[in-house]
Amino acid sequence: MASPRNSGSPSAPNPAQVGAFSPAHPDLTNGAAVPALVASQHYAEALARVVYIWGHPLVNTFRRTSTWELMKGHGPGMAMGLFPGSPKNHMGYVDDYLPAAQRKVVTPNNDTIYGACFADLGEEPVVVQTPHNVPPGHYWTIQIVDAFTTVTHQLGSASATPAGKYLLVGPGWQGEAPVGFAGVLRSPTDVAVVMARSFAARTSEGKAQARAVLNQLGATPLSEDRPGLRQFDCEASARNKVYPPELNAEILAADPDILRTRPVHGDTFWDDLKRALDANPQVSPGDAPMAEQARTLLALRDSTPAWKALLDRAVLVADNELYTGARYEQVGTPVGNGWQRQTNGGRWGSDWLSRAQAAVIYIYVNDFTEAAYLIRGTDAQGAMLNGRYRYTMRFEKDALPPVDRARGGFWSLTMYDKDYYMMPESPNGRHNIGTVNLDANELQFADDGSLTLVLSSDEPTSAAEKSNWLPAPRDTFALIVRAYVPEASILDSSYALPDVVRQR
Fold it and tell me: For residue 497, what are the domain limits?
């Protein structure tokens, strides 16, 4: 068995491609070379904007590997005391939902407890472990994505993945899995992300069950592998809160917005892209042509100050446009009654725009057959949702989102503010509403069997509406329905969620 660091596809641009951007005779009299130069500039600008959209998820992922250094020497824990962090090729955990007050990770779910591993497979393979003791109907998954956020493997209750150890390897790895492994999982890039999720009901018993399953899910370097299955400890990980020198829990509690920084910035994009490509010299066949173009532009940018200025400006424009346009009211295709969905979620192929949009609003979405994400930012009349109004969603009898409960399926409607964070404090403790509330008999159905959810910042007055109330912020807000293990009617859009109707 061998696991050499991948030297992969070419990391250097083709000089012929770089040279093609400059006119062969730039000094012709009477400005005769200007048309050729302008044509090259326009082409370079257009290509740079496409490269930005293509490369945004790559840079986004690679910037998140900064937790390697933060957690180095500390072991798995909670980076910034808020989200799962770990040294390279290990998995860190939380032991509860991500805190609602955090302002670092946009659109986290409020349904599962997370584990996360950022892997460097060029350094060595990673052992991924699946659980052997799971209660019937309990949802769990280990989602593996490449450096571009494309799902390469989706293990879990939905696919009835067998218990065992799997070897996750990079594109340059050659060999066979050691004895006792259930299989080899290949990543097209050296950097990969391994996300674990375990469903948690809002009871002490439900969370204990979620932790018990999560403690059987994990990722460790191959060099640390031992015979048999490991028992992990998400509670110990959650107690291990690690901060950079300039921060601590008190500072973050006083000002959570300190962490409200984007992983991708237009003014550093090219330098970040070069580092990300250097760390991932080989990419998937679908991404390889654009990787070559990206390297060409990086070389062109280094050639003269004029080209650097032009390419820097093009990316600043593309960066602004992506973040301005990637909004819940705009992303995805209509799937009925004002809701939208990225129907190719997780399996992006050459749909670089959708992949980049997802990286902005809800990075690391599961494979669309594993979880359907239905989003919206407008009401039935096409007006932006705003907490100063009162809205309802009426599900007719037997018309709740169809999910496969036997394979762990569940659904939830989650409330986010205009920046896609949860409200720090909820008047009734709810940040979402769905299967967990139904299972706990917290929701009140009408005599005809229908269920009407109420979305508002003001508390309803009637007992029935209080039971079905999902609090909203006073300002603009956005909604997402997650349907885990969706049935076919969601995937083919023959099922439609009810519209969101403004009442006053």
Answer: 333-502
- Looking at the fold, whether 346 and 198 belong to one and the same domain comes out as no
Reference 470, options 398, 404, 385, 361; nearest CA is 385
- Chain length of the chain: 504
Single out the residue of 380, 404, 382, 376 nearest to residue 483, CA to CA: 404
Residue 2 lies in a domain: no
pLDDT per position as a tens digit, 14-62:
888 898 898 889 889 988 989 999 999 999 999 999 999 999 999 999 9
**Taking the mean position of all CA atoms in its chain, how far away is CA 275?**
21
Shared-domain flag, residues 233 and 382: no
Q: Which amino acid is at 157?
A: S
Q: For residue 36, count other CB atoms closer than 10 A to its CB.
A: 16
From CA 151, how far away is CA 130, in angstroms rounded?
17
Q: Above 60 in pLDDT, residue 8?
A: no
User: What is the pLDDT, as a whole number, of residue 1?
Assistant: 44
Longest dimension (CA), the chain: 86
| Span 186-206, average pLDDT | 97
- The tokens describing 478, both together, are 């956005």
User: pLDDT over 90 for what percent of the chain?
Assistant: 92
CA angle 437, 440, 445 (to 5 degrees): 65
Residue with tokens 């991932």: 280
Q: Enter the DSSP assignment of 454.
A: E
Q: CB neighbours (10 Å) of residue 204? A: 8
Tell me what pLDDT residue 504 has. Answer: 76
Over range 101-125, report the average pLDDT: 96
Name the token pair of 191.
């950097």
Residue 502 predicted with pLDDT over 50: yes
CA 390 to mean position of chain CA atoms = 30
Angle between helices 305-325 and 288-303 (to 10 degrees): 130
Number of structural domains in the chain: 2
